[in-house]
Design brief:
Layout (H helix, E strand, L loop, with lengths): L3 E10 L2 E10 L8 E9 L2 H7 L16 E9 L9 E5 L14 E4 L4 E3 L6 H24 L6 E3 L5 H12 L4 E5 L5 H7 L3 E4 L18 E4 L3 H8 L7 E4 L13 H6 L2 E4 L7 H14 L2 H7 E4 L4 H9 L6 E5 L2
This protein binds NADPH dihydro-nicotinamide-adenine-dinucleotide phosphate (NDP).
């Protein structure tokens, strides 16, 4: 039937949560200014939580996850958007507190959207997604504070944030050292532009000496925890670490010595509440800088039906690169 569309719906009862593809109608969608015919979505670590256990992110059930979406405006009561406009949405707690992009139609606030940047298709925008957008914000923060001479370290390198960070830094002409716990991903990471592979176990030990040799000229860290604590002591004098994620843990068992004796900067990166102008700037930069053939290398194509398994996989650190969900 033409007035129904497909969505991944998560229900919760006493036995836990269950995700399944269901038919919905426009009347099922929440009220908001803009109705989008979603063409592509993607999978981030947070999506794994929202498809599965919720992780304290989902407020109400039934819930439609999907923190990212790209598609075409179908109806709009806001002057900024008209039917036919191509749009992208990341962040704003869409897919967590609000119904998200794992649906052929979504109803969202105009404030949350940005126009699809020139030079990107909706599919490429979702190959980037929150993970790649965040990688761009992290790289921009490092640029603002200045790179030092040594290689730039990327942790969680085969994941979504890490893969895009490797490709962006390489496109900027940086020597990139990729930290991975999956040695079989070496060819993939070198294909994205990594010049050096650092085994995860090299950075796994907790801090024993607060300062080690000055090795890294910058860092995009998707892992946090003991790894972040350890690498702070390996940064060059005045170098910066963009702290993006917590794939390895939320604690920071570090000392303040690298800050005091080496002037190391720890830069916090948030993608969810970035103001509109910053979003547009970061998306335009992605469209200009990111080599599209390298983006394509990262893509794992998927459908709504694949998401329950892929959501569980990403929570176990088993997804490589960027999953692109086709909703057409
Ligand atoms: P992915 O799961 O795609 O990537 C995470 C990567 O981290 C894995 O692929 C793996 O890489 C590595 N990893 C996983 N578990 C561990 C572990 N126990 N110890 C060390 N390394 C590990 O997730 P995303 O790239 O989507 O997100 C990465 C992190 O960034 C998440 O914590 C996410 O919540 C956060 N994030 C934050 C945002 C923000 O606004 N600040 C926005 C987007 C994401 P490998 O196998 O190569 O070692």
């Amino acid at each position: 039937m033409s007035d129904t569309f497909k969505a991944l719906v998560v229900d919760k009862d006493d036995d836990g949560t269950r995700a399944a593809v269901r038919d919905l109608t426009l009347d099922d969608l929440p009220e908001a200014e803009v109705t989008v015919a979603v063409e592509y979505s993607t999978l981030n670590y947070k999506d794994g939580l929202c498809i599965g256990p919720g992780g304290g992110l989902v407020r109400n059930y039934p819930h439609v996850p999907g923190i990212d979406l790209a598609g075409t405006v179908e109806a709009s009561s806001d002057d900024r958007y008209a039917p036919g406009d191509k749009v992208v949405l990341t962040g704003w707690r869409v897919g967590e507190a609000h119904w998200g992009g794992y649906s052929q139609k979504a109803r969202v606030r105009a404030d949350w959207l940005v126009p699809l940047p020139d030079g990107l298709t909706t599919r490429q925008a979702m190959a980037v997604g929150t993970a790649g957008f965040t990688a761009m914000l992290a790289v921009q923060a490092l640029e603002d504070h200045g790179f030092r001479a040594g290689p730039v370290l990327v942790t969680g390198a085969s994941g979504g944030v890490g893969s895009v960070a490797v490709a962006l830094l390489s496109a900027l002409g940086k020597e990139v050292a990729a930290v991975t716990g999956r040695p079989e991903q070496e060819d993939y990471l070198r294909g994205l532009g990594a010049t050096r592979i650092v085994p995860r176990e090299d950075l796994a030990e907790t801090v024993k000496r607060p300062l080690e040799s000055e090795t890294w000229g910058g860092c995009v860290d998707a892992v946090g925890g003991a790894m972040l604590a350890r690498l702070l002591g390996q940064m060059e004098y005045g170098a910066s670490v963009a702290a993006v994620g917590l794939a390895g843990g939320a604690s920071l068992p570090a000392t303040v010595i690298p800050f005091l004796l080496r002037g190391v900067n720890l830069l916090g990166i948030d993608s969810v509440l970035q103001p509109y102008d910053n979003r547009v700037r970061a998306w335009d930069r992605i469209a200009q800088l990111l080599p599209m053939e390298r983006l394509e290398e990262m893509v794992v194509p998927a459908t709504l039906e694949d998401l329950p398994k892929l959501g569980a996989d990403i929570l176990k650190g088993q997804v490589r690169g960027r999953v692109v969900v086709d909703l057409n």
